[in-house]
Specification:
Strand order of the largest sheet: 3-2-1-4-5
Structural class: alpha/beta
Strand content: 5-15%
């Protein structure tokens, strides 16, 4: 995104979020405001920033601790960006800041806001917040079930096996309950429901994949295929230097989205004629299996992006019509 030329009164702000406290740094004062990470502390920061509208505020993603502060800023109509802490750390090292503390991190976020111009966050509806929470909960319980299932395979004690089986059964029931709640929420929201129907028209894309994309890839359909591939982490990056041509590889992105896209792609290679034909073409070219799958993931994601952008179902895509004819 771009910003208009800065006036003398414009400034940038960075908020370092910890479990117990918040550190606010501002480019106009250079001072650090430290408050408790509670409703009163959040209110003080919002009031401080709202008094003189900032050009941009930056907050790092901290596993959910940042959400109350972020939501309060969005509710106050303040321009705030949620950024990846890894990118900020690399930025700090790049500008020569090796020390790390909460006040230093807040000041680094101010510089990041000035120079990196990250994309501004948007308000979330109540249904979006609920869907995010349900999808996150489902993913965490699914991971717990996988751990218990793997543990079962290495356990010989009958008493331990009985306990593990009981845990697996309980976790399975909770996942079923969550699936029903997620489905009910999606079907009750007109925007979710229409997008879900488009996504699930694709052979290989099921209810879990669709709900995850709705919750965790809101940019789908509103950006280009290269950007959405980078967001998911399936964009190939080159490693070239001088005459050396390194192997391309993927890096970063949203692991939770990438994992469900992987499963959808594996299914699509079997049952989706367009993706299957693409995979077969790559195999004939001698591409490694992993390269084939990642390329198919990127291809499938590109189709999904176009479908949501143009509000088309799978059968309405030109590539599908051509194949059918």
């Amino acid at each position: 995104m771009t910003h208009s030329p800065l006036s003398d009164s414009s400034y940038f702000a960075g908020i370092d979020v910890a479990k117990a406290k918040l550190d606010l740094a501002r480019s106009d004062t250079g001072e650090i405001l430290t408050v408790n990470n509670d409703s009163e502390g959040i209110r003080r920061i919002v009031d401080s920033l709202r008094a003189a509208a900032p050009n941009m505020i930056v907050i790092e993603s901290t596993g959910g601790l940042e959400r109350p502060m972020l939501d309060a800023l969005l509710e106050a109509d303040l321009p705030v960006a949620l950024v990846n802490p890894r990118n900020v750390r690399h930025f700090a090292i790049g500008i020569g800041i090796l020390a790390k503390s909460d006040p230093i991190d807040a000041r680094v976020l101010v510089e990041f806001a000035k120079l990196a111009t990250p994309r501004l966050a948007e308000k979330r509806s109540a249904n979006q917040v609920e869907l995010d929470a349900l999808i996150t909960c489902r993913r965490q319980i699914t991971q717990l079930r996988a751990i218990q299932f793997n543990r079962r395979g290495t356990t010989t004690s009958k008493a331990a096996l009985k306990t593990i089986d009981a845990v697996l059964k309980a976790l399975g029931k909770e996942i079923e309950k969550l699936d029903k709640k997620i489905r009910a929420l999606v079907e009750s929201d007109d925007d979710f429901d229409s997008t879900d129907k488009l996504l699930r028209s694709v052979p290989g894309v099921g209810a879990v994949v669709s709900a995850t994309l709705l919750a965790e890839l809101k940019e789908l359909g509103s950006t280009d295929r290269r950007r959405v591939s980078a967001l998911v982490g399936v964009a190939p990056y080159n490693h070239d230097s001088g005459t050396m041509k390194g192997q391309r590889s993927i890096f970063g992105g949203r692991a939770s989205v990438r994992s469900v896209l992987y499963m959808a792609t594996v299914t699509a290679i079997r049952c989706n004629p367009v993706i299957r034909a693409f995979a077969e073409r790559l195999e004939k070219l001698g591409k490694a299996k992993k390269v084939q799958i990642v390329a198919c993931m990127r291809k499938l994601l590109g189709f999904l992006n176009v479908m949501i952008r143009d509000q088309l179902s799978w059968n309405q895509l030109n590539v599908v019509k051509t194949l059918e004819n």
